[in-house]
Amino acid sequence: MTVRTRVAPSPTGDPHVGTAYMALFNRCFAHAHGGQFILRIEDTDQSRSTAHAEQMILDSLRWLGLDWDEGPEVGGDFGPYRQSERKDLYGQYALQLVEQGDAFVCYRTPEELEALREARRSQGLATALKPSDLELDSGEAEQRKAQDAPFVIRMRVPESEGVCTINDRLRGAIELDWSMVDAQILLKSDGMPTYHLANVVDDHLMQITHVIRGEEWLNSAPKHQLLYQYFGWDMPELCHMPLLRNPDKSKLSKRKNPTSILYYQRMGYLPEALVNYLGRMGWSMPDEQEKFSLAEMQAAFDIDRVSLGGPIFDVEKLKWLNGLWMRESLDIDALAERLKQWLWNDQTLEKILPHAQGRMEVLSDFVPLSAYLMSGEVAVTAEAFEGTADSSEELVKRLQFVLWRLEAQQDWERGALFASLKALADAMALKPKTLFAPLFVAISGKTSAYSIPDSMAILGPDLTRARLRQAIEVLGGVSKKGAKRLEKEYAALSLE
């Protein structure tokens, strides 16, 4: 048997370190066994997936050295490797399940679904909806069909109580309660598959032998096991990796830790060090050495050495390891070359000098004027924001609204950024300069700097958003209750 593994990210945002973590372990497992590692783009969510986000995934994985044997821009015998290009295929398999009686057409409206769930909640029952809850009588179903009512295709799941046993490479036999498993949508009303159908069909057709993924997918394993049974296919061996966690043991999130691969690239981390650190997340070398290359990890790789304790992603430890790589693995010439590749190059100077020239009297003025654009973090204090808003609550609100606006921003050119921020200012009934005032401090650590849109364009999205999050935390942060209130207020704004 040829070992074949895959990583299947969704191109809906910044490339996540969790994607790199999964790619690393899948690649090492496949190559340690002389097999192939596949990259598949799961872009079934057409409303959120973008070509730009996909390209960022490809670029960031290549920057880390985590190249793939088959996938987009590489090809292979089992393509296409974008699920949006396999749409018709999934429809055929969904209809096969309907014809077999293992799936059914569901015409239930969102309002009906919520009413059904509420009824179950009121009875103290699990809210997972079963086929008996969802199927209409034949007359009602035919009427809705004649009216061209929207529908989805759902899988059949057991109605009775009991458990489903899942075999996992790291965890052994796991029992999951069938009462918690709902009649999962397989094919959406727009004809696109959900993750569950596309995942199973693609893994089978691409001859994936081992599915190595995060433990958050454990609860989905019964549905996947059922689908393999319905189709009469052999199920790949499952291996659910422990989730990356913040230092406080919570699930790794951008609110508490930078999660974008591109953030670490822009900060000036070495890709070798980041891969090394991710390799230490729940795994160790046989000789317990802390610093090792991708090639060394692959040569010694044994997935059974993975520890199930939630690995802590600690940026300070990553920084220490990165320093070790810089000192021990780079001579002066190599370090100089890395600095040039990173930021100290003609391209960067060409972006900054037009803004600096009018403020310079001697060449040495360039460094203090521009240091914030060539730094990772900036020192920001709450006192620095005095006078930029009428109250600390209003200040946090403005910064949080800007952050949400920029998290949805795809076009990162200066003009697009200005237009986006001006639209936000207009929606908040603020003059642009009033909204920009605290942004100067958050972005530069000073009350004045080069123009905010220009500064953001030079810093890039990841560093810009990270500095805004840092500023919000310096100002006291936003509680869960406060976040819900602000989310409602933000959603009510008239934004294009």
Task: Describe the overall structure.
It is a single chain. With 496 residues, the chain is mainly alpha-helical. Among the domains are: 89-187, Glutamyl-tRNA Synthetase, Domain 3 (Glutamyl-tRNA Synthetase, domain 3), CATH 3.90.800; 361-491, Arc Repressor Mutant, subunit A. Helix content is 47%, strand content 8%. The chain has helices at residues 17-32, 51-63, 87-100, 110-122, 131-134, 138-146, 195-205, 221-231, 261-267, 271-279, 294-300, 315-329, 332-342, 346-356, 366-370, 392-407, 414-427, 432-444, 452-459, 461-474, 480-491; strands at residues 4-7, 36-39, 103-106, 152-155, 163-168, 172-177, 185-187, 210-214, 237-241. It has a three-stranded antiparallel β-sheet with strand order 3-4-7. A two-stranded parallel sheet has the order 1-2. Helix 8 links the parallel strand 8 and strand 9.
Low-confidence stretches: none
Q: Round the mean pLDDT to the nearest integer and report it.
A: 94
- In CATH, the architecture of one domain is Orthogonal Bundle
Spatial arrangement of strands, main beta sheet = 3-4-7
Structure described in brief:
This protein has helices spanning 17-32, 51-63, 87-100, 110-122, 131-134, 138-146, 195-205, 221-231, 261-267, 271-279, 294-300, 315-329, 332-342, 346-356, 366-370, 392-407, 414-427, 432-444, 452-459, 461-474, 480-491, and strands spanning 4-7, 36-39, 103-106, 152-155, 163-168, 172-177, 185-187, 210-214, 237-241. It is globular.
